[in-house]
Write a structure and sequence with these properties.
Elements lengths: L9 E5 L4 H12 L3 E6 L19 E4 L5 H6 L9 E4 L13 H10 L2
Parallel strand pairs: 1-2, 1-4, 2-3
Length: 111
Amino acid sequence: MNELDFSGRTVLVVGGSSGNGNGIAQAFRARDAVVHVWGTRRGPEDYALEPGSDLKGLHYAQVDVSAADAVASCQPPFTRLDVLVLSQGAVLYGRGEFDMQGFGTWSKSTS
């Protein structure tokens, strides 16, 4: 058995639309997994200009896991899940986490 062969396996990468999560998703795809990614934007086209985002060959769904009702109402297109990767991050867009007001808001919500 080859531990790096994911042929026929279903993988979900939450936060797999860009950054590290996208790299993980593409690594599973390169090993023949069927890879689904969840992100916060409406569709894959909304990531087209995003550095570190390659959704080619991945199945995308908009699911904001910070909203419990979005997760509860999600109807995934798969019935079996072999691998779950949680790679979502918290971000204040426009680098808002680097100003004091944004940092204070973010640090209070994660403590």
